[in-house]
């Protein structure tokens, strides 16, 4: 029993102890949880403070499409109340721009399914704020498994900064591009060296100067423009510029395109520790300086050889140069000039030599000349009249360096020549006034400069008009009404212009309305003017007209004579025909047999009638020879052979060897076959008449593409020069040869007339005792 009670007491104590221990543990645990809760509250408050102060706002999109966002974010998005889903982010005129909302919804859908984050700019309707939406799959701690967490950042200020930086970057890029283009387009070599002084960039001019393929090749091979020298070359100068921070300039020689050039090299330090350089070709400048020096020496040598005196003063008014004529003109000794005397001393020395004008106030006069150094005029010119009749022309030229150049020209001879010229002008005026011709001198611009009284009276010009020196056009209009043909007045103006402008001498004639006639001529003068002369030829014109009338009367008489001869030729043919017929009848015995002497008489009558008929035909041909020939095709070879056959009997009667050479090359000509045959016959008859018995005559006919040729030659006595001169003259008196026949008649003149009517030519070559050769040339057409 006691044991039972004890165990009960022990059990109760153990229970009580357990209860006390559990209560203590519970109290401890509660206190610990309380501490944790307070710490969690503090962390939560801090986190919410950070969230509220953060530049971003979060939105959770759950897997079912529901969204969780704060009112602050809704205000950013332009919503009156938080949206429930993504579609609600844009409602009417509230929320996001619809295109941005659709793009955001698509990005959220891709992030939820593929787990791929996104960054997307979005804008609220009617707001200038730009937001950057950054999304990723939501962590499980948010309790939105399969959802998307989207952070919205206010990127408005960031956008402005980006835009400003982008604009600045664009300007810098444009400036860099322009600078690069300028460097590339520069005609001088330019380069850039890094801090290690190695070439990092070169322009096109540098590439061409070193004969490289491109800039990269130059940089890769480190091709220097300037050769290295004992002083270190271009890199030494660049190192000095880099180390001292001051630009360096020096002249260095180099070889470009096989030619030795002198360059002025500039090295400029840059802020990055490198250097920029460029080279200017000063070879031409050096040559120009040398050329200027040589020019100055040559100029002074030339000034020593001119006749004018030249002296030059420097900015300090000391003499720096004077030529030999100046020394002679003003009696300056070389030893005195060696001290470079000042302007005032030179003027005083010139006065001592008596080579200055006489003036009352010499100090004032000298002070005025001293002002030449500061004169604003380009040059000052004076004339000095010295004792002894010397005339000096003085030209003072202020120089750019505030020096002075003075030229002294001795014009004494020119003044004397001008005086002589004035005398000559007076003589010329007196001469022109007494000329029989009318004379006028016109300047190059056509204005009348000089004239004599004859010129004025011929045209009837007033003195007031001529005093105005009118142009030739005005004079022509004024004189037109005095001419028989007023339009001829402009011819005078044209001739004057031709003489002044074209330098041509031309002339003509003009008739006045009162019956006078003048011959005029426009002659170019050496000074560019023109001389117009007019000579009265009225008397000569009347004589000329009388001679012309007489000539016309003679031509009319010749025409009457020619017509008379032609008529008489026709009239003579009738009785000649009758005489010839009756003589032939008597000779044939129709009137009974004749005695031997009667037969001889009738034969003589027939021969004389034949010869007289030939003469009548020749005279008739002469009167009709000017008529144009009939044009037809003539085969010249058979035509010439036919004429030769007709004269073969006459040649045989005189025992003359008559040879004919007619070649096929004679061809065809165009003309009158009868006239051509007559021309050949007349030449052959002339040869028969000239050739003595037993002689030889040759008829040769040939031709070329241009024409045909007929040659008749004989071995007769020939003709002297006098006979040859009148061989083709139809009016010449002809004699007789040794056999009693005519030495020359109408045959050759008629042949010449017929040949020339066909456009051909006939020529005769003869020597006494050597025979005669006559050549006829006929064109094809």
UniProtKB/TrEMBL annotation:
Protein name: histidine kinase
TM ranges: 6-28
PROSITE patterns: HIS_KIN
SUPFAM superfamilies reported for this sequence: ATPase domain of HSP90 chaperone/DNA topoisomerase II/histidine kinase, Homodimeric domain of signal transducing histidine kinase, PYP-like sensor domain (PAS domain)
Record's keyword terms, sorted: Kinase, Membrane, Phosphoprotein, Transferase, Transmembrane, Transmembrane helix, Two-component regulatory system
Catalytic activity entry: ATP + protein L-histidine = ADP + protein N-phospho-L-histidine
Organism: Sphingomonas qomolangmaensis
Chain ranges of the Histidine kinase domain: 567-781
Superkingdom of this protein's organism: Bacteria
């Amino acid at each position: 029993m006691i044991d039972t009670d004890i165990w009960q007491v022990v059990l109760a104590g153990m229970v009580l102890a357990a209860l006390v221990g559990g209560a203590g543990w519970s109290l401890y645990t509660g206190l610990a949880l309380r501490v944790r809760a307070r710490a969690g509250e503090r962390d939560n408050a801090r986190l919410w403070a950070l969230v509220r102060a953060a530049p971003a706002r979060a939105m959770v999109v759950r897997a079912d499409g529901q969204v969780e966002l704060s009112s602050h974010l809704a205000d950013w998005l332009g919503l009156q109340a938080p949206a429930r889903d993504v579609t609600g982010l844009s409602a009417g005129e509230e929320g996001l721009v619809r295109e941005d909302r659709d793009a955001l919804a698509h990005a959220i859908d891709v992030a939820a399914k593929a787990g791929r984050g996104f960054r997307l700019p979005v804008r609220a309707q009617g707001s200038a704020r730009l937001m950057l939406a950054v999304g990723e799959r939501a962590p499980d701690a948010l309790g939105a498994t399969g959802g998307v967490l989207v952070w919205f950042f206010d990127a408005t200020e960031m956008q402005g900064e980006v835009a400003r930086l982008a604009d600045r970057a664009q300007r810098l890029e444009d400036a860099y591009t322009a600078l690069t283009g300028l460097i590339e387009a520069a005609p001088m070599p330019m380069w850039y060296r890094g801090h290690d002084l190695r070439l990092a960039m070169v322009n096109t001019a540098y590439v061409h100067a070193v004969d490289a393929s491109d800039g990269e090749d130059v940089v890769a091979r480190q091709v220097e423009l300037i050769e290295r020298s004992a002083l270190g070359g271009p890199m030494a100068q660049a190192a000095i510029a880099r180390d001292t921070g001051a630009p360096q300039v020096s002249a260095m020689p180099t070889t470009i395109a096989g030619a030795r050039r002198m360059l002025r090299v500039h090295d400029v330090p840059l802020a990055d520790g490198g250097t920029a350089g460029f080279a200017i070709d000063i070879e031409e400048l050096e040559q120009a300086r040398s050329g200027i020096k040589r020019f100055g020496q040559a100029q002074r040598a030339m000034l020593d050889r001119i006749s004018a005196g030249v002296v030059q003063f420097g900015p300090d008014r000391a003499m720096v140069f004077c030529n030999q004529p100046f020394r002679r003109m003003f009696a300056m000794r070389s030893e005195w000039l060696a001290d470079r005397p000042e302007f005032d001393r030179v003027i005083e020395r010139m006065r001592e030599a008596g080579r200055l004008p006489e003036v009352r106030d010499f100090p004032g006069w000298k002070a005025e000349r001293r002002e030449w150094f500061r004169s604003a005029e380009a040059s000052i010119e004076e004339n000095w009249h010295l004792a002894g009749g010397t005339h000096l022309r003085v030209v003072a030229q202020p120089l750019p360096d505030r020096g002075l150049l003075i030229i002294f020209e001795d014009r004494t001879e020119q003044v004397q020549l001008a005086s002589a010229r004035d005398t000559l002008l007076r003589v010329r005026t007196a001469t022109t006034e007494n000329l029989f011709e009318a004379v006028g001198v016109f300047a190059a611009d056509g204005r009348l400069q000089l004239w004599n009284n004859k010129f004025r009276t011929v045209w009837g010009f007033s003195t007031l008009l001529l005093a105005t020196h009118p142009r030739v056009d005005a004079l022509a209009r004024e004189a037109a009404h005095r001419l028989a043909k007023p339009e001829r007045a402009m011819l005078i103006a044209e001739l004057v212009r031709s003489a002044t402008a074209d330098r041509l001498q031309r002339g003509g004639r003009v008739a006045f309305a009162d019956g006078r006639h003048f011959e005029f001529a426009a002659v170019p003068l050496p000074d560019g003017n023109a001389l117009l002369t007019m000579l009265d030829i009225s008397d000569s014109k009347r004589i000329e007209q009388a001679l012309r009338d007489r000539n016309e009367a003679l031509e009319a008489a010749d025409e009457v004579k020619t017509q008379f001869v032609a008529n008489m030729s026709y009239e003579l043919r009738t009785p000649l025909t009758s005489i010839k017929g009756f003589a032939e009848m008597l000779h044939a015995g129709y009137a009974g047999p004749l005695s031997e002497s009667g037969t001889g008489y009738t034969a003589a009558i027939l021969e004389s009638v034949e010869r007289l008929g030939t003469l009548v035909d020749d005279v008739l041909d002469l009167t009709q020879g000017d008529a144009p020939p009939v044009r037809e095709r003539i085969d010249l070879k058979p035509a010439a052979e036919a004429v030769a056959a007709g004269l073969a009997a006459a040649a045989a009667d005189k025992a003359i060897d008559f040879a004919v050479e007619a070649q096929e090359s004679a061809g065809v000509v165009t003309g009158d076959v009868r006239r051509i045959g007559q021309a050949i016959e007349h030449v052959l008859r002339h040869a028969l008449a000239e050739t003595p018995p037993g002689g030889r005559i040759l008829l040769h006919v040939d031709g070329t593409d241009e024409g045909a040729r007929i040659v008749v030659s004989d071995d007769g006595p020939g003709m002297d020069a006098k006979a040859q001169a009148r061989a083709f003259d139809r009016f010449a008196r002809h004699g007789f040869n040794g056999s009693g026949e005519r030495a020359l008649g109408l045959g050759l003149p008629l042949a010449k007339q017929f040949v020339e009517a066909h456009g051909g030519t006939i020529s005769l070559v003869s020597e006494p005792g050597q025979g005669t050769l006559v050549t006829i040339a006929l064109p094809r057409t």
